[in-house]
Amino acid sequence: MFHKGTSLNKRLNMLLAVCIIPFTVMAVYLLTMVYQFSERYDSIVDNITHANAYNIHFKEDVDYTMYVIVVNSERAAELVDTGRPHELITQARQTFRELAEKSDTGYAKSQLTRIAKSLDTLEDRVEEIEQDAQISGMYDKNLERLDLNIRILTELIQEQIQEYIYYEVTNLEALREGVRSDVANALRISILVFTFILAGALFLSRRISKHLTDGIQQLRMVTRKAGCGDFAVRAQLKDSDEELAELGDGFNQMVERIGNLVEDIRVEQLNLRATEQKLLQAQINPHFLYNTLDAIIWLAESDQTEQVIMMVSALSDFFRTTLSKGRDYITVQEEESHIRSYLQIQQFRYQDILEYEIDIPREMYQYQILKLTLQPLVENALYHGIKNKRGRGHIRVIGQMDSGRLVFLISDDGLGMTKERLVRVQKAMNKGEEDVSGDPSGFGLFNVVQRIKLNYGAEYGIWISSTYQEGTEVRVEIPAKKI
Question: Over the stretch 244-274, which tens digit does the pLDDT of each residue have?
């Protein structure tokens, strides 16, 4: 088959042709099968996802909104004017009608139509309560309607949605069984195709192998080891041909650089994840949560409804931003809302000693910032500045743009730090080490500094100035990047 002088490239091309032609045919078949399964699977999962979104929140949202309309005449007028309950029902009805239009089975279409009709009935009951909510003397009747009409209807709708989800999950199981059968057929065909490829490859490789040198074999082995993660392996090809020796040297340099980069990335990711975990744990502080819930209970027992709503809203906003659905970056507006919620809660607890001011221009709102950058610094200002001095204290948060950077100044007129303490904190921050003095005031600073430098670069970070008995100012600088 091969003549003397035939190039290695031609031999390899012939071997490649024997392998790739049947493999291509097989790949097209498999891709077609996978595409058909994926289309059907995506459709079912999309239906389940849309339905499940309302299965989780719809009943709770509608019940709560209607309860507010019934028991709170002031908020009832506001909710009726804004059309809040109708908006929830309209969105749900539109979603399920769209699912019904896309449905290709009679049972699913029937089930979705039932849900839409139940939503129509629910909207009628909502309108009846809205009309009577602002009429005096209808309170007891509306409460009875809320229990007998609204809550029962929302529970019925939730059950219907669950039935629909169960039907779609059943379809998913049937699809899985069909795929299993197709996979079995594809496996049999694949075995035949790969047997043909293997036979042809073995025949040709025997003819080619005698032209391959020990140097290539060694290079193949060390490449495989490197591919498995062993970056300490080295190719010894000094006595081989010049081209192979040069290839071996280049391979050794590449593996060494990759090993160094992998280790640097591993260490950096470990540091970043550890820092983020510590900071997140610091935000989900059980004492802070317990104290806030105790305050809410006290307000509720004192019938201070507006204060209860304010505290619950602030606590909800605080933890919503803390978690942020796993996002690392949020907007400056979200970070401002986070620290405002935190300070609202703390001002209720420390109203005799705490005042605060937040001054961040609206033009900065759409820029991105690493989550939990400012709140730990505000917390430090409160607990290690304001609380440690006598009398009322003031925390101020200022934002400004400066030469393509976002600059934030967090200042307090609290206890401040001595020169020795300030030097120790700055030294720990610059070295990238936690403050070894044991003083927890450096914990938040350290974690914020580490996360800024790991995510933005060494040229960004935190700068601190402090005077004992006068106060502390923390300057944060990060690059100005929009979401």
Answer: 667 777 777 787 787 777 766 666 666 656 5
CA distance 356 to 347: 8
Helix (H), strand (E) counts: the chain: 14, 7
- 158-183 per-position pLDDT tens digit: 888 888 778 878 877 777 777 777 77
CB neighbour class for 430 (10 Å; exposed up to 12, middle 13-18, buried from 19): exposed
pTM for the predicted model, two decimal places: 0.44
Please give the sequence-ordered ranges of beta strands (E in DSSP) within 9-105, or none if there are none: none
Beta strands in 329-437 (DSSP E): 329-331, 354-359, 368-370, 393-402, 405-412
Mean pLDDT calculated for residue range 417-426: 89
Q: pLDDT over 90 for what percent of the chain?
A: 14
Sign of the torsion angle spanned by Cα atoms 426, 432, 436, 442: positive
Cα–Cα distance for residue pair 203/213, rounded to 1 Å = 19
CA nearest to 219, candidates 200, 202, 240 = 240
Q: State the burial class of residue 281 (Cβ atoms within 10 Å of its Cβ: 0-12, 13-18, 19+).
A: exposed
Length of the chain, in residues: 483
CB of 448 closer than 8 Å to CB of 376: yes
Q: Using the 8-state DSSP alphabet, how is residue 400 labeled? A: E
**Token pair for residue 366?**
């759409």
Q: Is residue 310 within 8 Å of 344, Cβ to Cβ? A: yes
How far are the Cα atoms of 223, 324, 373, 386, 442 from residue 283, in angstroms, in the given order?
Answer: 46, 13, 12, 19, 15
- DSSP-derived secondary structure letter, 284: S
Q: State how far the Cα of 158 lies from the Cα of 362, in Å rounded to an integer.
A: 41
